[in-house]
Amino acid sequence: MSWLTPWAGAILAAAVIPPLILLYFLKLRRRPQPIACTLLWKRSVEDLHANAPFQRLRRSLLLFLQLLVLVLLALSIMQPMIQSRRHAGGKTVIIIDNSASMTATDTDDGVTRLDHAKRLARERIESMYSGGLFSRSPGETMIIAFSNRAEPMTQFTDSKAQLLAAVDGIRPTHAETEIAEALKLARAYTLNVVDELGEARPVGDPPTIVLYSDGRIADLAQQVLRGEEKDRFLFHLLGSEEPDNTGIATISVQRPYDRPDAAEVFAELVNFNPEPVSCDIQLSINEIAPDIMEIRLPAAALDEESGNLLPGRRSVLFPLENQSAGAVFGVTNLRADDLAADNVAYAVAPPPKKLKVLLVAPDRILTEKVLEGMTLDRLEVRSPQQYEALAGSGSLDAYDVVILEGYAPPSAALIPPGRYLTLGPTPPLEGLNEYGEGEAGMVFPPSEDHPIFRDVNLENLFIAKQTLLAPADDVQVLAEGTSGPLMLAVSRGRLQLIHVAFDPLDSNWWLLRSWVNFIFNAVEYLGQMGTGLSGEAFSPGAALTARLPTAATDIRLKAPDEPEVLLTPPDSTRLSWGPIRLTGLHLLSWSAPDEEERSSRLFAVNLLSSEESDIARAKEIVLGSESVEGRTEAETRYTPLWPWAIGLGLVVLMLEWWIYHKKAYI
Prior knowledge:
By secondary structure, the chain is of the alpha+beta class. The protein starts with a strand and ends with a helix.
């Protein structure tokens, strides 16, 4: 309650109330003389002749009523106004943003923006449906929660308990913010007719839309106000003006071209603060943290042309040696800020892919036997004529590695971009430069620790005959013998080739264990090079999809901070579950008839959204041509109480007049 003119009422009360009380203190100054015939009238007339002050003040109903009239008069002069929630009746739609930015904890009391929004919504519902003397029918209300998709929490109802339960049931998500679907639902209950101009016009009063959000809405520019009047769209602004946030914008895991047994974890961090900040970035592999790096993030800057905030960015790289696939990589920003959802990102590395290998080795079976011992997806053996037909038709892209042993294509056109291992005859590539045949000799130990030489000992290798080559500058010599280069690498974009400048049958190599190790290393190196280690990643709000075995049963999913749920898809080979609410690692497990233990797969769900990481609240939202300013406090209205005070004072005066005359003339 507030008072428009409190001092005027106080002055009036001070001027009239004390004199009234003093009148009741007056008494008659005379000597009592009892007379028998007047004893019965003593009590009736003694108050009519008071002319002396300071008699004992006795209880008097007339005094109470007169004081009450004066108090009501003074209150009416003060003009009291009672404050209440503003609602226009009819239908109301309460829309609450539960996107990732609403999990920020930059509120005054330290709770999330979503919890603050839910508290304000509950207060509004309590006020609307509290009843009382000055209230009127609030109509029906609908609750909608939205992130990148809308979720109606309850249909239109006037049940306060049902509405409060719907607000309490809104859960946070880490999805991005899009309001189009929420507005479409809010308008679905407004009937429209098409006029003679072909335009849709609303019938009746449009609903009042109450939006609780921080205003960070991606598709807001595409929305327009239709039948809603501007004062029927209320935007309650949440969050602080200068929040503190740094986050992870990108994560990936790659294998270097020259080191397929290694891995590189790449991450990009963003800073939305107006000043530079320092961050400790932690790398974890299967929940073990082998490395922490301290970096300095530059400050965010304002783009003068667009007016948008450009966050400060910096990339970090964690090199890892001897890193096989089948691991969970995590990058964590250890700096505490107002938004935790973008401080952790994961990448799940699946098991190594099985390779498709094409072998062209006329009249030879040694290499084929070695390849049959490897875990390959497919091994195909073709003749030189069949190979040339495949190369001419562009069908070699179906193979991860092509091995040419004892055969060289007649022209460079028959070596299209791909990954090749050639043994013996020199392939017709520019830069190898064959110039003759060398004598028998030995192999010098390789000077570089190349992946193809892992567990390969060349000390006992004896070569009876080799081809002499004069490689160009862009051709890497991997191993040399007494007569010149023996093993070379050609790396020209999509063309990756390893060439052995002697025929294995012209040596004792095929009798040594190092021959098997070399074939295995070369195929893995060529087939896996340049491929990403990280598997498919998902974003909050999307659906998690996976292909499982046909006979998979008892399919269960464990999401972060959620109980494990049993999934019953109609087709296990096309599993789809969603929408995903929170970031983190999701574990999918199932049983198979032929397996004793349950199988499982991990899926990484990351925010990686600069739009949601920018949690600075919007000052206003623009819907079409209408600009709606955000309100940080609940919208209220004031009801004047002074007319009620004057009316009650008149009633009391009439009662006082009736009591006085009844007492005086009884």
